[in-house]
Amino acid sequence: MPRIHIRSGSNGFTIVELLIALAVFSLVLVVVTASIIQISRVYYKGVTETNVQATARSIIDTVSQSIQFSGGKVTDTPAVVSAGSSYDFCINNQEYSYRPGYKLVDSTPGTNETNHALISRTVSACSSPTGQLMSGAVTGRELLSPNTRLANMVVKNVGPNLYQIQVRIVYGDDDLLSNPTAANASCKGIAGRQFCAVSDLSTVVISRVK
Predict the structure, then answer these.
(1) Contact 174, 194 (CB under 8 A)
(2) Bridge partners, residue 90, by sequence
(3) What are the CA-CA distances from residue 177 to residues 55, 65, 98, 187 (Å)?
(4) With 0-12 CB in 10 A as exposed, 13-18 as middle and 19+ as buried, what is 114?
(5) Closest among 74, 100, 93 to 163, alpha carbons compared
(6) Range name among 95-109, 112-126, 148-162 with the lowest pLDDT average
(7) 176 with 187: CB under 8 angstroms?
(8) Residues 50-67: tens digit of each pLDDT
């Protein structure tokens, strides 16, 4: 009668092999996670920069069109301003009141914050700065969006019927910015910089209506 040989044991993974496989999987997982985080940061940075540039462009366009087609007197912005103070300039019967350096918020303002940053309104006649943005009774259309600030605003006559317009818009909290209330406010290179952006635009326009 033939003998039957039975082979004992099984072909499985050893503990060392399992540990090596686990280490490789963990490394791949870390790399994938880091890549996803980086992609998210780049995405949010792009969205933030696009929104800030759109805001700055909208302000430049609004002021430029007022100068080009209103046919009225244009008053220059003050050469020297202080963060948090209220200023204004006029183009015909359109008055622009602004509060430089302070972040626009919808809630109760804290340090370096305001509920009104750049207001446009139609008036019967332009006057000297009224300080209306320092008070609670503010009328007009807000040109900035929440969490942005007007770092710099320049409107000045540079020639016959020729005007220079410069706007610097900054998005971000104080801790993400260098010199947050100054005209040269800029983003720091730290964690969270995807939630910070700066747009500095300048143009020269001619008044076409006299």
Answers:
(1) no
(2) 95
(3) 19, 32, 20, 5
(4) buried
(5) 74
(6) 112-126
(7) yes
(8) 999 999 999 999 999 999
